[in-house]
Amino acid sequence: MSMSDSTDYVIEDPSLPSESDEEEVDSLPESDDSSSLESDEDEEESDAEREWKESLQQMELLLTMVVVPYIGKYFGRKCAYWGWAKFMMWRYPVEIKVTSPIAFKAAGAIEAAASL
Q1: Calpha distance 57→63 (Å, rounded)
Q2: Helix (H, G, I), strand (E, B) or coil at 3
Q3: Which residue has the higher pLDDT, 11 or 74?
Q4: What does the alpha-carbon distance between residue 69 and residue 91 come to, in Å, rounded to a whole number?
């Protein structure tokens, strides 16, 4: 029998520390009270940041779904009335006077909101 055959069947004693055990112990993270406090602060900041992002998303949704269409409809009608008045003045030279500008604007705003 050769020497290499006899060493292949050597069983190590588990009670003795091996190199891999020492490496595992060395690689364990150290626990520190200050690190746990920092992680709590990070969690609080992330909660506040998440709420901030949610509120910004809600504001964006409000603007895109309600405010922008309403304003676009209002100014679109105002532009259409102005354009129609210019066309009618060119086609039929009749002078049109708005007697109450406030009532005219209010009626335009109410009509723009009616179909929303």
Answers
A1: 10
A2: helix
A3: 74
A4: 32
